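Supplementary Methods S3. Input chains for the assembly prediction are listed below.
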Amino acid sequence: MSADAKSSGTKKVPIYCNQCVCGPDLFKVEVKDGIALRIEPNLDIGEAHPAQGRVCVKAYGLVQKTYNPNRITRPMKRTNPNKGREHDPGFVPVSWDEALDIVAAKMNQIRAQGLTDEEGYPRLAASFGGGGTPTRYMGSFPAFLSAWGAVDLGFGSGQGAKCYHSEHLYGEFWHRAFTVTVDSPNCDYIINCGNNQEASAGVTGVWRQADARARGLKRVQVEPHLSVTGAVSAEWVPIRPKTDAAFLYAVMHRILHERDWRALCDLRFLAEDTNSPYLVGPNGYFLRDPAASKPLIWDLAEGKARPFDQFAPGASPALEGSFTVAGVEEGPDGERWQHDAAEAKPSFQMLRDHLAACTPEWAAKECDVPAASIRRVADEFVAHAKVGATIQIEGRTLPHRPVGIMLGKGVNNGWGGYQAVWARTLLACLVGALEVPGGTLGTKVRLNRPADNRKKSVKPGPDGFMHYPFNATTKADWQAKPHIRNAYKMLVPLSANSPWSAALGPAHLPWLFQKNPPKPWPKQTLPAMWICYRTNPAISSWNAPAVAQRIAEFPFTLAFAYTLDESNYMADVLLPEATDIESLQLSRIGGTGSGEQFWHHQGWAIRQPAVAPAGECMDMTDIATELARRTGILRRYNEAINRGSAATALKTADFDYSLDPELPHTAERIWDAVAKAASHQLSEGKEVHGIDWFREHGFMLREFPQLDWYLYPEMKQQGLRFELPYQERIKRHGAQLARRLHEIGIQWWNHQLEEYEALPGYKRFPDIWTDYAREVGRDPAEFPFWALTARSMQYAWGANVGLPLIHEVAQNVAGHDGIIINRTTARRLGIADGDPVVLASVSGETRGRATLREGIRPDTVLLVGQFDHWATPYAKDLGLGSLNSLTPLALSLTDATGSGADLFRVSVRKDSSGQAVARGGAR
Amino acid sequence: MTRYGMVVDLNRCVGCQTCTIACKHANDTPPGVQWRRVLDVEYGSFPDVERVFLVTGCQHCAEPPCVPVCPTGATRQRADGLVTMDYDTCIGCASCAVACPYQARTIVHEQTGYYGEQTVQEKKTSHADRYGVANKCTFCVERIDDAATLGLTPGVDPEVTPACSVSCIASAIRFGDFADPASEVSQLAKDNRTFQMHAELGTDPQIRYLYEIPGGTPGRMPDAADADDEAMSDPSNPLVGARQRFWDYRAAMNFFLGAMASGLAVVAWLANTAGAMGDSTLRSVNLIAAAVMAVGLFFVFLKIGRKARFIRVLMRPQSSWMTRETWCVGVFYPAVAAGTLAPHPALNLVAALAAAGFLACQARMVYASKGIAAWRTPLVPWMLAATGLFEGLGLLSVAVALGAAHGVALWALAPAGLVLAAVNAALWRRYRATAKAMGIGPLSRRDLAAISPALHVLGHAAPALLYALCLVAGSPALAGLAGAAAVAGGALWKFTLITRACHQQGFALPMMPQRGSGTRAAPERLAAG
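Predicted structure tokens for the full assembly:
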């Protein structure tokens, strides 16, 4: 053993890892003589962390990430004015002073011209990607953006197709569930349509699911290929892509039509906690009490209708039947229909009628899944739901419904996403398993406020439901012109208007409209400056090659660069940031968050320099401060930090750790103040710690009540109902939005407007992608295969494709070395394992080596992760393909929420040119 | 008493490779080396498929086949069951690597980094002592050895528990003392059904795999098709072992030249004893044998990782056939030298016995390589011995034909050649016929089948025919041709055996979780509708 290794004189530095949305988790870096040697889990946190302090494979890449010889460690400026993949940027090193002068001059020019341009678009745009994870690395840069003013954050990095888009929007609307998961510690049965939990739910998800399996949880995985999650599930059901909603509709049909739903469903939950009994009038809107405008419910005991809130618990509201009732319907734009004797049905009856034709036999044809399997899954689901059971949580008796439903990215994204998320949430409601122990839960809030507390985000709204901050669609208040280039306020009422909304709108539209604007549409100007941080849209977007071309058209790009990559290849200035284990920041941990991040604790953790930054790399907080100073917004920047834009408010009624707004402060000083404010807040003033304490201890926690995992208690407390099954508000917003758009001549969103249904109907969703070929003059028969992608735990969001260590271990997992093709299909095509293959779509091609497997449908091919790099050192030599090279940017593939699904129709052939490099050839 | 081991739960493992990379950090393994590797295995065919993640690595066997074969004592088994490596003693001969049926051992010769030149961190964590020698999982022995000092318990306290177990994000890898009935691993092994991989090889591996899923899913045996020839012929199947690369043509050269030389010495002594060869010829032939053997040994010397310490090969006579082979060399050369300088029948006998020993040691060395199914078959040592004698006879015949060995009676040479050709042919046929039953996989069998016609013609029929003709015609030239054919045949199959039909033992699950699609799915539960 060498003298330096494993001997004394080392220290272990606690740091958080937030390389995926399921963090932060905690690790330690072993350091000796100023060199980071090794990573290990931070077990100091013990059982306060649901996975007892473990971190996943990605965290172990951070040492190599730090010492990657391909890093950019000095500021660089571009010398070649021509931009594009074919133009070498000619980056040359410059001093920080010169680089910041160039950037600040550009910024000051923007400020002098005005923050928005002649079309009303912000002149400054910025993209971060990564599901929000970059904010855990960018120090106080959010405060810089806040101080700046108008910034267009709507240029996506793949959002929509790459996130759980319908889940985010509808989930947050229905149960404050930006992200949805299952209460696996208390769950016994999960229907999982394509959610790759074992790759994407973080260490907590993996740990909890493993515990649940070892306890006997049964999970049925419904997906076209056998993912790592499907592998460890009790059953894999190989469903045809994009037909999951049909599967779930048929499961509900089984419960509501073939079985005795009155005996199986949670009737109390349906009657008291949903809009199931609300009467629906002939025009499809709730029939309301004319005086109070409150939706009516039919009282079976008295044989008459009553406003929904005039029922005592235990009364007998009608869930089925048809009744003649007087009342009013409130349609779009204040239209009212007065009825003296209308035929009205409870929305639950409407639901049953709606699903009457969705038999398992119907779904079997659609999904290519045996009807018997669908029936069995439905029967198992209701049997495991234990309707009527209760559980004690922290002294309170709650319903216990140990069944859940998970949806994958491609399932709830794009066309069919609304249907799938509606069916999932409704299926939970049928057995009372929404937001109760054991059931389907939300874990995060992004569109409602406050974002750090789901419970507090529950506020009463109309008709006994929660308030939801829809973007207005009324004539008076509708945003008639895009305020940023993706126009989310204008086109997507559900996207709300929080700091996250820009990223949750139709974030691909700016890339699409920059080249092919629809008519009519305001002219889309280019941003005078685009900032690119810890994201690579030229790789991660749908139709990534086209996005690379759009980036090349930007007049000025500032990229914070780790290595050269496909996006910063077009940059004018590269600023090297001190990265994960080289810079300082505090972050919240615990509470509830993405994936299965619902803890019994919450608190704060540190990310700190374990080693000195490489070369001239600078802490992002110091960069932000310097930019603020040079652009004359230092005071506003400091005030934004004091308000909490960087982490948490430094001044409240209880304490004041605020910074002098007139002075520039070091990262050390800023995060020391944050540490004090955070610890003060966490301990209610009992334990106030500066940054040095966090450096030593790594994290600070307090308990987080399990009751706060569930929204149900708060809903009951406030007397609110879940807004299911009937979507009256969605229908109304859709009708109003249609009128608004048509009033200004926009017809190109009409297909999307059809999605605003009160009871979403199943369409033949796969046909949308199959038929797209005709739209561009091709024959669908040319593209007989589905190409899908799957999350790679080893790579996702890690900015680590340039790390051979990660590549080495990832290769142990099938699909990381090639394109997965069904073995029988491959034989038919004359393709052997390892053969170079080409996948082609109407919009592009990608190449890789064939990996032949049995765990994939014969009509489907799979590309794990996203590669096809051409500039990133090391990654560009891997010869790995990417679905993003095959997926066209298209309005017709965009759903009403502004999202597309991450899949496409392709052809598969052996690559006679053999351009894919040989297996292992990169190393 | 202590017996450290692991319990791996196949129901928990998600194949994430966190253990793999955590091990790489904790143990500073170089690029491409994974002491803890998790395989991504698929069984069945669409639509009846199962995917299993299989944790592999050194099993710290209770009966470790790697230990007795080690010629230096670098690999040992401790009282607590750990199979350890002493890098400063190992010469990098790779005997242990080919003896391991779990593909647990690696030898890296070049000190390189992931990006080519080592980074500052890679230099700092590089272990110069681990290059050119055998490496493998140590169960993080340094942590375990800290336990007593720190007053902690391996498997309970993470500080003294292997990194893979501590880092596992599914709690799939548990470590502890199987000798302690109260330990977690003992309890898990007691309360659940488990299997040991390749238990039939008698290694008593100390990783026990759990495969049951609670809730009425007891696990199942593989289908016949899961391990049939088609499945085991697929090089992309991670269960299938690839060709070993530890012993290459240089090792084969020793098995060829060394065996031929020792066979020559034995045959010459027999001929001399039978009166078919004069004393001076015997001495000449022994010098030829010594020269040929030296060339073979030189090739071996070229192959070992740590040449400067090759002499440590003598350290394990109690169990290592490589050590014994070297001792035989140590007797053979002085005996030949002394016999040349001061001729004496006793010295001839000593040289012949040493040569016979050398040949036997070689045969047993290959047979002791339990990691290679085509080598560990009981017929293999007999075949190597018979071939060695045949090659020796062949070389002698060539020497006679070339006039390098005078006065050798063809009446003895030719019948011996006929007998040895027949014996070799019979052994080869038997070996081929029983190969599948002996567990030799289809890939190795294919390599053996590929040479079989040529071997029968060149190595068996041709020498037999030529020796028969020689007997009739009394022509030394025919004997020489026969001998050359015998030598060529021996070379053909031994090079094939060592460098082609040398697939490592793959992996196998005698039981697996019952899950997957179609007929493999877990049974239905509570679906009383």
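The CA atoms of residues 133 and 409 of chain B lie 48 Å apart. The first strand of chain B starts at residue 4 and ends at 9.
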